[in-house]
Structures are given as structure tokens and as C-alpha cells.
Amino acid sequence: KLANAAGDLRANFIAILGSPAPMVIGTDYRAMAHILEKRTGLPVLVFDTKGIAFYDQGQSDAFLALAKRFVVEIPQEREETAEINIIGATPFDLGSEKHLEDLKDLIRACGYDKITSWGIGGRFQELPLTSAAKLNLVINRSGLAAARYLQEKYGTPYVVKLPIGQWAAMSLHEKLRRGMTGEKYEAPAPKSSGKTDVKRALVIHEQVMGNGWRDCLQMDFGIPQVDVASFFSMDEELLQPNDVHLVEEEDLSALARERAYDLIMGDLLFEEFLADFTPNYLALPHLAVSGCLYKDDSLQFIGAYGSALLQKKLAFWV
Q1: Does any domain span residue 277?
Q2: How many helices (H) and strands (E) does the chain have?
Q3: Is 105 part of any domain?
Q4: How many angstroms separate the first and last alpha carbons of the chain?
Q5: Residue 190 domain-assigned?
Q6: Coil, strand or helix: which one is 208?
Q7: Same-domain pairing of 214 and 296
Q8: Euclidean distance between CA atoms 27 and 37, whole angstroms
Q9: Does 36 share its domain with 88?
Q10: Dihedral Cα 81, 88, 136, 48, nearest 10 deg
């Protein structure tokens, strides 16, 4: 069935994913992959997933497998190679393709026109050319393993950043340039978009997205303490001192109770058991948490859109 489907779909490769039942009976995925490769002539990737880990780990495994299997050494002089390669553009974290286009527009404004993407809008034919990119821009934690592999294997530098807010948009050019050259990055001065009485805020999301909102809250609106919490994997290099990895819902309630945040941002599913612990809750839909229940493709947040969104939602005054 898999071989026939691959032929009908004109697939570039086949991926085999595990689930709880095959895990219990000890299915030999690699033997299946070997047979399929001989029958179809296509590369077969095997993911020994068990159906009990979160989505972000699966994304990370997929990006790393693509890097190891399909990326090859390519001279940077080739005309079709990208300057910037975006790793991690998945709908679970980024949302719709509109947000990716906003990000690409921001990168183009920095002077880089050749941009490729792993995820939304990506093309399989671009994968082998990744090694010749000048920089990999990682926009979620799931892209980190692949970016680190590509740096070790091909020497491609990477930057971890999702630019949300005016300050982030302003600093992106310098971040990308210094990422390519290896120079020490010096952050520009904060760019005030408004004032607020909020002193302590919490962002609940995927780690890199959460860090992007932290930049916006701190650098655009001057909020002194912004913590990031996530139920999904968090990389130690991206953590700040008060960030928290959550295991159960009770962990989130306890965190909000103990730290008495003035503002909490997160998916609407979290609001029900956090309403008693904060005077302000701002909805930040996360497809991986609530699916399409609260999905809002009209919500723009990349670059200056992020500052405008917060200014409107919180009624900040200038």
C-alpha cells in the first residue's frame, strides 16, 4: 500500500511514523524501510514515535532527519542558493502562511532577498541547497537540533529569534549580520511604543515564540519582569532565570498564584484556571494547544505588528 501510494502521489520520499500499538508489539520499522527503499527507489525516513510525546519533539526529529538525509555540500557561489534559511516555520507555532510572509518581508527589508523555509511554503528541491546558506534563522525550539547539526557539519551559523515588536524588527538586521560574521551582538536601545502599569508578566507558549513576546513587552513597553513558561520542551541556552518548564496544569496555577502577575498571555484554554490569579489575561492562540478552536489568522504579530497588537489590546497610552 505504501509503495502504491508513493507512486500515485509522486512522492520525493517516504516517512514511517510509529504509534502505541506497533510500539507494544515491537514492529521493526527499519526492516520495513529497507524493503520499501528497494521496491520504490525512494529514500525512507523512520521515526520511532510512540504516540506519547508532545508535537515539538516530533517536529525536532523530523527537521534533524531531513538535515541528515538530504542536505549535501554545495558551494555558496551557486546562484540558486539562499542567503537566509528559516527553520521551524510550522503552523503549530507560527500559525498561517501570512505570518511567514510577514517574516520574509522583514528579512527582505534587511537587504536579504534569497530566503527559503523549512516548513510552511518550503519546497523539497531546496533542501539539498541548505548547506550553502549564509545563515539559518531558527524560529522555534524544534528547529534547534537541525541548526546545530548544520553548523557542526557545514559550518553554517544560526540565530534563534522570532522578531515580535518594533524593537525586534529594528534589531533583526544587526542580529542577522553579526550572526553571519560571528561578531558579538550588541542589542540596540529599547524603542518605547507606550507605557503601562504592568510590572510583572507571564507568557505561556512555545519557548522561542514566548521569548519573542518577552522582547516586545520589555523593549517596547518597558515591563521589567517578563517570564516565559511552557508545557513543551525548553532549551537551556534560551532560558532566562525565572523561566519555568511546566509539567501539569497545577504547576501553572501554582506559578501564577506565587508570582502574582499583572498580566498573563497564553492560549484561551489556560484562562479558565488562571482568571483568579491575574487582573489581565490576553489571548494568544496556540494551534498546538487548542487546535482550530480559537484560531485567528487575522492576528498579525511579526515585527511592528506585535507592538501595535499589544498597544490596542492593553489600551497602552503613549
Answers
A1: yes
A2: 12, 11
A3: yes
A4: 62
A5: no
A6: helix
A7: yes
A8: 17
A9: no
A10: -90
- The per-residue pLDDT string of the chain (318 residues; one tens digit each, 9 = 90 and over) reads 778 887 788 888 989 888 888 777 888 888 888 888 888 899 999 998 888 889 999 999 999 999 999 998 876 666 666 789 999 999 999 988 999 999 999 999 888 888 999 999 888 988 888 888 889 999 999 999 999 999 999 999 999 999 999 999 988 888 887 777 666 666 666 665 566 788 999 999 999 999 999 999 999 999 999 999 999 999 999 999 999 999 999 999 999 999 999 999 999 999 888 878 888 899 899 999 988 888 876 788 999 999 998 888 776 433
Tell whether 211 and 290 lie within a shared domain: yes
Domain that holds residue 153: 84-181
* CA 276 to chain CA centroid, nearest Å: 30
> What total number of domains does the chain contain?
3
Q: What's the CATH code of the domain at 264?
A: 3.40.50.1980
What's 75's DSSP letter? -
Choose among 307, 293, 297, 268: nearest CA to 120. 297
Do residues 225 and 254 both lie within one domain? yes
Q: Which residues, 6+ apart, have CB-to-CB distance to 17 below 8 Å?
A: 47, 49, 58
